[in-house]
Design a protein that fits this description.
With 251 residues, the protein is of the alpha/beta class. The chain has eight helices and twelve strands. Strands 6-9-10-3-11-12 form a six-stranded mixed sheet, with helices on both faces. A four-stranded antiparallel sheet has the order 2-1-4-5, with helices on one face. α5 packs parallel to α6 and α7 packs across α8.
Length: 251
């Protein structure tokens, strides 16, 4: 798989007992751009993302990467296909440094079988190089995460996703807890990530942010993807109307 692979979700359904969380969701994620998913609470956004990340396995339907059907039964399956996710809680360890968080559970080792050691310098150098390339506003990769601001923590989580993602980075409400300045910094980072060739999927309630960042937006309502449009063709007000059903979909 490469960063040029298109991802297609085709009629994906998922139920939990009598609750039909996804009733046939279909959408396409184009490579090398930002795609956004919007919808009210309960629309099915989180369930769809969890199907894409291997936390849930769809009951029916298909996910295809560059035309090849894939089946994820665990987050590791999704990561093996190059899909990384940055959730709202960021999944960072406060007690570890920036570079340790970026390599958490994927540490590099050196030596021979039976005498393995952590390749600390290699990991630090690579983490520092990536942070520098992304122009991330982080004091240094040796700084403990607990001493970083909210925006810096978000940047570290995104940088980790960039480091490991071969296909796509999913950002779940990437700036929900940030102020205006830090939101702007994180949005600039997302633009740099895409300019570097990565594919990004953003789930957001912030319609103005969707307008600023994305090239394609898909609208979910009642467990279905009710339509999609190129973002340049729709206003923030129209997006609100499409989410509520008050406005017809704009092609």
């Amino acid at each position: 798989m490469t960063t040029n692979d298109k991802i297609v979700i085709d009629d994906v359904q998922k139920s939990f007992g009598n609750v039909h969380a996804l009733k046939g969701a279909s959408l396409t994620i184009r490579p090398g751009e930002v795609t956004a998913i919007v919808g009210d609470n309960g629309a099915g956004k989180s369930t769809l993302v969890k199907c894409l990340t291997g936390l849930y396995t769809p009951d029916s339907g298909e996910i295809r990467i560059d035309g090849e059907p894939v089946r994820f039964t665990s987050p590791r399956d999704a990561r093996d296909k190059g899909i990384e996710t940055v959730y709202q809680d960021l999944a960072l360890s406060d007690q570890l440094t920036v570079w340790q968080n970026m390599y958490m559970d994927r540490e590099l080792v050196r030596g021979i079988p039976g005498f393995r050691f952590l390749a600390r310098k290699r990991m630090k150098d690579h983490a520092a190089e990536l942070v520098s390339q992304l122009a991330v506003n982080v004091p240094g990769v040796n700084r403990p995460v607990k001493r970083l601001s909210g925006g810096q923590r978000q940047a570290v989580a995104i940088a980790r996703g960039v480091m490991w993602a071969k296909n796509m980075i999913i950002l779940d409400e990437p700036t929900a807890a940030l102020g205006l300045n830090e939101t702007a910094q994180v949005e600039d980072l997302i633009r740099r990530v895409v300019a570097g060739g990565k594919t990004v999927l953003v789930v957001s309630h912030n319609f103005e942010q969707v307008k600023r960042l994305s090239q394609q937006v898909w609208v979910m309502r009642g467990g279905r993807v009710v339509g999609g449009t190129r973002t340049e063709n729709v206003s923030g007000e129209q997006l609100v109307g499409m989410v509520t059903g008050a406005v017809s979909m704009v092609e």
